[in-house]
Fold these 2 entries.
Entry 1:
Amino acid sequence: MKRLSAMIKRGELHPVLNHTKWAELRAEMLSAPPDQCPKFRARSVFAPPGFCTDWDGEFYYHIHPVADLEWMELQALSNNWLREALNRHSIPYSLEGGVIRVWGYTRPGPQPEWQ
């Protein structure tokens, strides 16, 4: 946490989501209709350049800790269902190559086009 706080203080990271919004996202994915089968992959702010996790559907345990998540990409059967779920909780996201990306932090420079 010290390292993360220092990065924020130096302006290397700009917080987007707080723990409450991550919890709302997690709860929404856990209560998804069975036919949606949501999946995610994520990137930590401490990960080497270009690294992100493999796609995973286990939202109960596998998205912790969220404190260092730079972003999380989401997939489901329907992107419309995902967008509605995110909008219901006012969770900002962007479309990156057609994939929905929820941001925990952004870095200086060009910013995502928020949806």
Note: The CA atoms of residues 43 and 50 lie 9 Å apart.
Entry 2:
Amino acid sequence: MAIHLQNIGKRSEGAPFSWESKDALLYALSVGAGTPDPAANLAFTTENSRGIEQQALPTFAVVLGGSSGSMKDLGGFKLSQVLHGGQTIALHKSLGSSGTVVPVRFLSAVHDKGKNAILELTTELLDPLTREVVASSITQMVIRGEGGFGGDSRPSENWEAPSSEADFTVNQLTTPDQALLYRLNGDRNPLHSDPALAQMVGFAKPILHGLCTLGFAGRMILETLADSNPDDFGSLSVRFAAPVTPGDELTTSIWKTESGASFQVRVGDTVVLDRGSYVRRAANVQDPVQEPELASFTA
């Protein structure tokens, strides 16, 4: 077994991570804020517009904290075996346009899906003074060929797209240089920028970061359901179902629920973000929210 099961639950604290106003602005621009109307999202895209206070998009939390650590801590598998399967982001209070957090990371679960293994990596972002959790995220990684070790398989979710017509359907056009812009947030994986490498692994051209697609969806859901108020954001969870090419048009279908919304994102007829769940913040925005479970894979 190449996965280091003995490391489940072992917490690793990183160095304090700080961001400035311009970092929050860059992130917002990289997930489509201000496009096509530059005046539409000024609270997220400018810091000096008259009568408007700068705010950070809630999904900005996913790029805070720096590197997620060495793969060697997780197991002896190759990077080529790894797929980003899903992501959850939860906010316990709204992010500032600048600030500092202390990242704490740990391998929170490993699931045996037969052929493949599923790793769940949790990152908590702590207030450096109070040590309270500001935000948390769970990254779900599919490790191909590392299943069959007899571990917990974790039942698959019964999530299905509602049969009714979506309450909202929103189209957003990504730009041909979207991945080049998004990579400036810190993810410099050449799969998203180098045509030669993309072709080596089977893509006609570089693909868009899955977390960039997530950022587009999160921004549009917040805009559609909460008038772009970050205090409404509790948590958001998705499964990455198919790659997006920069320049593709994203169609987000949103079904309102009691606690928030279910959603899917498509490019044409292809679902690219599946099993989407959005949960509003608790009435007291300082109270923690429970992260929804990530969708499990059947393969």
Note: The chain has one domain: 15-148+157-280.
